[in-house]
Amino acid sequence: QWYLRLEWLVSPNYVSDWWLNYVYLRGREAIAINSNWAGVMYAKFCATNNRCAHASMAIHEFLVCRQQLYRDNFAPQMIAEVVPLCMDQYERMFATTRIPGVDQDELQTCDLSESRHIVVMHKGHFYRVQVYSANTNRILRPAELYPVLQSIVNEEAFADEHELLMPALTCIDRASWAKVREEEFLSNPVNRSSLECIERAAFLMVFEDDEAPSKLVDEVRNLLVGNGHNRWADKSFTIVVQKDGRVGVHVEHSWADASTVGHLVEKVSIADEDRRFYNEDGSLIITDKDEKKLQKLQPAEKLKFQLSKACCKEIEKANGIYVDARADLDMHILRFGEYGKGMAKKAKCSPDAWIQMALQLAYFRNQGRFDQTYESSTTRLFNLGRTETIRSASVESAAFVKSMQDPNSSVKVRLDLLRKACEAHQLYTYDCMTGKGVDRHLFALYVVSAGKGINSPFLKKALSRKWKLSTSQVPTRQLSMKEHVGDQSQLETSNGAFGPVADDGYGVLYAIWQEDLFYFTVTAKKSCPKTDAEKFGQCIKQALLDMATLVDLTPSKNDKGPKKIQQKN
Questions:
Q1: Is 530's pLDDT higher than 60?
Q2: Whole-number Å distance between alpha carbons of 273 and 217
Q3: How far apart are the first and last CA of the chain?
Q4: Which secondary structure element, helix H or strand E, spans residue 65, and what is its range?
Q5: DSSP string spanning 348-387?
Q6: In whole angstroms, what is the distance from residue 230 CA to residue 123 CA?
Q7: 61 near 271, Cβ under 8 Å?
Q8: Backbone torsions φ then ψ of 44, nearest 5 degrees
Q9: Which band of pLDDT confidence, cut at 50, 70 and 90, is reported for residue 500?
Q10: What CA–CA distance (Å, rounded) separates 35 from 109?
Q11: Which residues form the catalytic set?
């Protein structure tokens, strides 16, 4: 404890550096499924089916955000438009790559002067695309980017077999990738130059080769894992563009938390809502000024690689490993439209706490036991803050779940216990946000004990247990509603997905959309006989329906509360 106090005195945040290094960068397992996550812009809406038009817009709007950050005129994120949050994570949004190491990775962020391009992947080829005008820092407009992207999409030939599979190297364990990178890429001048181009890029973009998924769950799964060889997992974020024009992101997790990327994705999506760049048919608006500038554009530059026989064998091996890991991912999306946060409010409960209690009830029914549960809470009220753990499984939540399973328990008792559980959860959430959580402090104590050679069986046990139920909510709206235009009811989003933390556990990313809709994206491992994403999704649905029966559903004349829930046999 004394060492931590000393660290607190001499550092801006006594946890954040250790959290980044020990939890993320020293992790040696593959990151593509185990750490990275996927973000979906919309569940149904798509501003245009012209994929190059949509891609051009996305590139431009992300770069506008980058320019605002670079010039320090990006509006700080606020809670209730009053309390500012730490914006440090935004500094690593662009031109950042997680560089693999044998023992520990490192984050590399390039300056704008070194990163005036993006890299586009299509059919296994990598293309360098300049996104700023040649002599200034002016961001190219969508109409200027469009013909360059169209020339890439028009390429019919696939890359060489091994170059096509090469991105799979970033999706295996970090030490193996670090060794191949050192021996086969950095030692070859051609490969080194191309690799540096990728790692210094502002971000990556992937044009999908396969037909667009027709189901949302398949789209989200594809954003997370790709086709087995088209996700460069090291990059801070990758824009994924499907053949039908839908856009999402694949995000490396170490440099920032999901709300940071979600914030910028929301800002970019406003250009879809107001259609500022599109004609009625979805094509891009091209002005006379654009026409003049099109003649001076730099064409895309195809990157070259020289892959040795040894490198080809490593690529084949990596692809096999990642294809198996990809196939093992089980995913299910529950769109719960029977009611929304209005029900929780009517029950005098926090909507987030209400959902967490539903997850506790569903998990107990699915697994027959309680397990420690992770819910992330932001600590960005503090300088360099990241997250704290909200422990959703509590004495109060267990009492509520047991009452729901007890046929002799009355509705009144169950509702009272639900409210107590929600109150306890809401109080602990507040404690976590304001620096009173326990998990990051325990983690810091463990780091000190390990570094000083002090044996602590308690800390070892506390920090080694896997989170069998890992949950997270990314707010669907972080901007003021004044910035959004038009009918928002058609713009619902499931937000995205992340993989399960434990091989025998579940990952659940949930979204609260407006007043009457919940989304749950559940992941698990198919290889585990004890878990099933779809079955757990059905348990969540039934838990929500059962909880609704505890609330008085007979509205008075002046009550516009939720409608009565019709349960299906």
A1: yes
A2: 23
A3: 56
A4: helix 51-70
A5: T--HHHHHHHHHHHHHHHHHSS---EEEEEE-TTSTT--E
A6: 9
A7: yes
A8: -130, -40
A9: very high
A10: 19
A11: 253
Q: Write out pLDDT tens, residues 463-496.
A: 989 999 999 998 888 888 888 887 788 899 999 9
Among 438, 458, 465, CA closest to 15:
438
Segment holding 118, helix H or strand E? strand 117-122
Q: Output the 3-class SS for 293-332.
A: HHCCCCCCEECCCCCCHHHHHHHHHHHHHHHHHHHCEEEE
DSSP 527-550: T-TT--HHHHHHHHHHHHHHHHTT
Length of the chain: 569
How far is the C-alpha of 456 from the C-alpha of 116, rounded, in Å? 49
The greatest distance separating any two alpha carbons of the chain, rounded to the nearest whole angstrom, comes to: 78
Burial bucket for residue 225 (CB in 10 Å: 0-12, 13-18, 19+): buried
State if pTM tops 0.90: yes
Provide DSSP, 493-525: ---EEE--SSTTSEEEEEEEETTTEEEEEEEEE
E strands, 208-309, where?
Answer: 237-241, 247-251, 301-302
Distance CA 561, CA 52 (A): 44
| Contact between 280 and 58 (Cβ < 8 Å) | no
pLDDT in tens, 68-78: 999 999 999 88
